[in-house]
Amino acid sequence: MRSTNPIFERLERENSVYTGAQSRTGVVTKTALLIGLALLSGFLSIYIPADILVGILIPVSILTFVASFIAIISRRFAAPAAIIYSVGEGLIYGILTHILELAFPGIGLIAIVGTLSVFLVMFTLYSTGLLRASSFLKKFVLGGLISIVVGSLLLSITSLINPAFANAFYANTSLLIAIYLGLIVFGGFMLITDFDRAESVVEMGLGKNEEWLASMGIMITLIWIYINLLRLLIVVMNDRK
């Protein structure tokens, strides 16, 4: 079963054994480092002047996209690409979170704690063997991702054609809460498949640079979870006003 994460798809295509076996400790350490860099850059964005923040948002977004693309096609640059991606994403969502804090105080801390909690829970379930990436789960995640992409495109097109539909859709608080909760849970299942893929790559004995790719793949899923937690919190907090 192919991975649903582009970073891990790239790893699966590697069929050579490189110098220096990949280790589970290496993946865990680098994943922790990338998470720490994202949190640090997000926190430091508080101290960047507003006019500069607006100016760097688009360039940083482009840079993170380029970094993820480079990581997929060239393992030689995996380490700098993963670091640039994490720092860039931290800045982007740090800026977004600071803006949201103006309307929804505390939303950032809740989203960060929630994301890390999902990560720790799923990692514990996976590492203890209570939840494994079965063939069914991998197919479910792949099918779910395709459905989400198609559904998002259809929603966007329908909203452009019929704005009234979009207004009614986003006004349905219960529906939005259910959707975002579902996406967060789905992100947890994505983590399980990512952990499984990373473990498979370790067992393949690929080079040390591949640790960065595996860690970056997990980081992508964590950002997915964080984004949807923010969306959920916006709906819930706005409904309480």
Automatic annotation (TrEMBL):
InterPro entries the record matches: BaxI_1-like
Does the keyword Membrane belong to this entry?
A: yes
Give TM segment ranges. Answer: 32-50, 56-74, 106-128, 140-161, 173-192, 212-234
Q: Which keywords accompany this UniProt record?
A: Membrane, Transmembrane, Transmembrane helix
Origin: domain of life:
Bacteria
KW Ribonucleoprotein (keyword) present? no
Record protein name field? Predicted membrane protein
- Organism, by scientific name, is Acholeplasma hippikon
